[in-house]
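task queued by scheduler; priority normal; single chain, no ligands, no partner chains; default sampling; output format set to structure tokens
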Amino acid sequence: MSEFWLISAPGDKENLQALERMNTVTSKSNLSYNTKFTIPDFKVGTLDSLVGLSDELGKVDIFAESLIKRMAQSVVEVMEDAKGKVQENLLANGADLTSFVTHFEWDMAKYPAKQPLVSIADTLAKQLAQIETDLKSRTAAYNALKTNLENLEKKSTGNLFTRTLSDIVSKEDFVLDSEYLITLLVIVPKPSYVQWQKTYESLSDMVVPRSTKLIAEDNECGLFTVTLFRKVIDDFKTKAKENKFTVREFYYDEKEIKREREEMTRLLSDRKQQYGPLLRWLKVNFSEAFIAWIHIKALRVFVESVLRYGLPVNFQAVLLQPHKKSSTKRLREVLNSVFRHLDEVGAASILDASVEIPGLQLSNQDYFPYVYFHIDLGLLD
């Protein structure tokens, strides 16, 4: 499973023994793979500042997770022709995400632990905000290009009633530069081919005999040319409609056709030029955002552990990776049992949802007697 539970318990002898019991039970029952999660000794500051920081980190955590999901989705969209290789591009510091999380080490160079916690959190938040700003501008430019290209490509597909005809017709299909004559394109249902051949010359006066030619077909219809005098265009269209023949509004313009083809070539070239740089940017900055997210998780564990267990700072963080989805309920029961002593009243509320604690709104789904955070990498699959 690509799901992790990041917990912490006080670091005194009793709770270290509780952690050992947890490791023993979860190992024997094949519930989870557990590793220590090392967090630096940060400057604590005041408890009031920690309370404010706790709220702020919660918001940044949600933002970071949302951002990396959007970046992962952008990689999927950019790599639409090679979706099987998407995971190869969703790495953190060159490692797969599971390995990075299970071997996490705080980056002292980028986020010095001697700085105040508020400063570290601010650095992380600003880094993520800048990545989001760049993501929006880069993907907007690429998506606009992609949309324009898709719109042009759609014109080259579909039936004869809607698709562009510039890649079907040629100059030789038309009478051009004539003061009196014009070539029209008429869509004829396949079952009506014989009727068309028999009647097109008589649909109006001044239709050039033997001037029709089939130049394209789709599953249901054919596209025919017919040449007639300009003065009878309206009359011919009316009579054609009465016979369920559709005159397609199209006039051959060599310059317009050339422009359309050049636009398609330009858009294809632009997309190819943007593809590589955008994918490289996404890879690099997905990694940066993901690394920042796990650092935020580490900060949250530290702040919540100090607020929950008090000073001096003394706690042990552990990363649990449940082995399978079906075992998570049992794993939760083991943790709640092992650490029930940390908060007897709170733990009781887990077992009895009817217990009310004055001034505290809890649910048996979201309260635990130990510090707990969830990391779900499956959301990036």
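post-processing summary
- The two ends are 11 Å apart (CA to CA).
- The first strand starts at residue 3 and ends at 10.
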